[in-house]
Amino acid sequence: MELRQLKYFTTIYEEGQFIKAAQKLHVTQSALSQQIQLLEKELNIDLFDKQKRKVARIVEATPLGHDFYKDAKKIVDLGERAKSKIMDKGQQAPMIRFGTYQLLNKKQIIATLEKIRQINTNYDFKIIEFENPVEVQKALVDNLIDCGISILPILNSKDIDHVYLSEVSMCILVNTHHPFNALDTLNLENLSMENWIEIDHKIHPIYNDVGLFCDKSGLSNRKIVQEIPSLELLCHFVNIGKGIAFAPSYINTSDFPNVVKKKIATPFITLEQVLCYKNSDRKIFSKVKIPLGRSKDSVS
Asked: Residues near 103 by Cβ (< 8 Å), separated by ≥ 6?
């Protein structure tokens, strides 16, 4: 029994005539009749009333033919759906699973996606957000994503390669009513008595490095009064005068009128953002170059 035979049978059943069914199926009437005969022989039943067809030229299913139609129709419809589904998938563009992390600058995401799209025009993207840059690298090793934006260092350089994207400096957020607002730059040694708002280290590992750097710079006893999970909350608590905060220089403070960004006078930690991918995918991603090169984000 072939799917083609079932389709022939159901079409004859629905059209009520062999000639109309043959026209709809784009086959000859004799070929149609031959396939129905083969199907009836295999089933060892008559699907159509031969006497009525011979005498009155009426195509009418037998009682067993009526019963068989119900199941045959289900099989034909299922076959059509399966065919349509696989054809649709075949026409879809290949998907790149692209990893980001919570505190990542949205402009960096857009610029990187556009650059990948320019080089690989036939790809679509599925964006997956992780808690922090390290989780992006882990997801790459675990084959949960195809590429993603992270920061140096690369923890598993044996399996992961990268393309440099940008260097992001750190700044200090200050309330406009704070005396520091009158200064263009801030020296770390002058900040030991301040209250600090800080991102949870689990959200962004850079704050572990910030803590170590502060310890070496005489700020080992910083008073952290509030730990929060997002840059928006960081700005909020600085905005209400709760304290000051380290933040990536790309942070958007436009919704917080009492927050200003200040440069750090002494050499400080920078974030080196990279596009990570598996070594086996080097041909797809190695040509991605962001036009800005190794320029630092400015603090305004």
From this structure: 132, 199, 203, 204, 230, 231, 248
Residues 6+ apart with CB under 8 A from 95: 123, 124, 125, 126
Could you tell me which residues come within 8 angstroms of residue 225 by beta carbon, excluding any fewer than 6 positions away?
195, 196, 197, 242, 243
Per-residue pLDDT, averaged over 251-259, amounts to 92
**Which amino acid is residue 40, in one-letter code?**
E
Q: Tell me the backbone φ, ψ of residue 263, rounded to 5 degrees.
A: -75, 150
Phi and psi, residue 114, nearest 5°: -65, -40
**H or E element at residue 90:** helix 63-91
Q: Considering the entire predicted model, what is its pTM?
A: 0.59
The full DSSP string for 113-141 is: HHHHHHH-TT-EEEEEEESSHHHHHHHHH
What domains, with CATH codes, occur in the chain? Answer: 3-91 (1.10.10.10), 95-166+272-285 (3.40.190.10), 167-271 (3.40.190.10)
Q: How far apart are CA 166 and CA 173, in angstroms?
A: 21
Q: Taking 70 as the threshold, does the pLDDT of residue 79 lie above it?
A: yes
Which residue's structure tokens are 């069914």?
Answer: 21
Specify whether the CB–CB gap between 24 and 11 falls below 8 A: yes
pLDDT, averaged across the chain: 85
Range list of H helices, 122-205: 133-141
Position 93 confidence tier, pLDDT thresholds 50, 70, 90: low
Residue-wise DSSP of 214-233: HHHTT-TT-EEEEEESSHHH
User: Do 9 and 47 form a contact (C-beta atoms < 8 A)?
Assistant: yes
